[in-house]
Amino acid sequence: METIPTEKQLWDEAVAFTRDKSPGSFDQWFYGVQFEGLTDGVLCLRARDEFVREWVDQFFLPTLTDHIRSRTGWSIQVAWTVGGELDHPVIEPPPNRVGEEPNRLNNQARGIVLGGPSTGHTGHSGHAGHTGHTGSGNVQNLATASVLDDAAPWSERRVVRQNMQVVAPPLEGLNPKYTFSNFVIGPSNQLAHAAAIGAAGGGGRRHNPLFLCGGTGLGKTHLVHAVAHRVRAERPSTRIVYVSAEKFLNEFLQALQDQRMTEFRNRYRERCDLLLVDDIQFLASKTQTQEEFFHAFNVLHQADKQIIVTSDKYPQQLERMEERLISRFTWGLVADIQAPELETRVAIVRKKAQIEGIEIADDVLVYIAQSVRSNVRELEGTLIRLAAKASITSRIIDLDFARSEIALSSSARANEASVEDVQRVVCHHFKLKSGDLLSKDRHKSVAFARHVAMYLCRERLKCSLPELGRAFGNRDHTTVMSAVRKVKALRGADPEVRAHLEALERKLGTAD
What we know:
Blueprint: H1 7-19, H2 23-30, E1 33-39, E2 42-47, H3 50-59, H4 61-72, E3 77-82, H5 107-110, E4 139-148, E5 159-168, H6 190-199, E6 210-214, H7 220-234, E7 240-244, H8 245-258, H9 261-270, E8 274-278, H10 287-302, E9 306-311, H11 323-329, E10 333-337, H12 342-356, H13 362-371, H14 376-393, H15 399-408, H16 410-414, H17 419-430, H18 444-461, H19 465-471, H20 477-493, H21 495-508
Parallel strand pairs: 2-3, 6-9, 6-10, 7-8, 8-9
Antiparallel strand pairs: 1-2, 4-5
């Protein structure tokens, strides 16, 4: 029969399990923590000062308590005491130097901020995006902070400013390549890029909240990751929470099930300086989760904590989303990202080739950009596939090779229809002349066919609004936007319009 461990043994097991993930960082902070008991699911700890308590509570306790919970099934509550002497710290401090007072810690070596001004938020170091996993490979950043002058006698100790290292756990779920330096700027994303720079504290007006919207694979997530990387590099003490809306929902449901709502709310309300949420449209129809996000949003916004949200739709187009949330999304700036223009697509492929070390001629870059117009992800994927095939077959990526491979690929088949193809099929369907769609004719039947063609190009080919404006007789992009919205609304409300669209999509071979 398995022996039931004592409370102290459970604690020691949890300490060993947590310390094994990052011994250096663990030891650095647990010099200032003392275990004082575990009774009936209540874990009693003492911290040398408030900053140690906050850091340990933020980055180590979730792993510690989860381990104890997995062994016992208990719902663990933590009771902290701050201050006082630590007779038996979890990690014994290094031997005292000759003449030093007993139990005195070397605060500079521990990297603990004890008071005074600092860069970022004094007393709130670290990242809340990944609670419970302090993994190896922690990033070390230099920060100017106020620490005790260890050279002075105990009775005359004073606060001085000096450089110190703040050790913070890595940011979970972020792509290290998604930085501002790797983001290609063009007319289609210029506003969103500038707004993201401002949100990261890089100059310009800061909008809060910042709502980034656009189709799949156009760079919304890239900008969000870039903000997190920039803030982490420049202000390492900032507590960053990066989460998808789906993960937020799952964490909320798990917290309800485990009766850990206080911990969940603290993470998103009290222990967060920068909240980044991807794909907020996922919360549609999730009424209770929307309610929880609404309150978290309010707390952070009132505290002037930066909030960035991404979506594949404008706020007003989010179906089954509470009006009060939609209203708040528009408080700051709504910045949309359109499909990139040809010049931007060429620059994107060139940048990706540089990052991946792929040698490729300019004419091939242009051909790839002309062939793939849907989104950035598809562009980059096509380049990677060409490079992989060339490596396997020992071929050079020249124009003939690119043409043959792209023609055979599924991505090419999905994008083989062009604007001209759509215009030709629409004219044939509505029995119009080929030039009618480009003319200034405003007759109802011609205008409707033109709007349908614009809608199909926008939805199926992911062409940018300016591109479509030029392709349809040099019309303004706002005209195209109005046409697309009108047809989209009619598709849902008018069976006749829906039948026309479905017939056209079958002819184009692009029906879902």
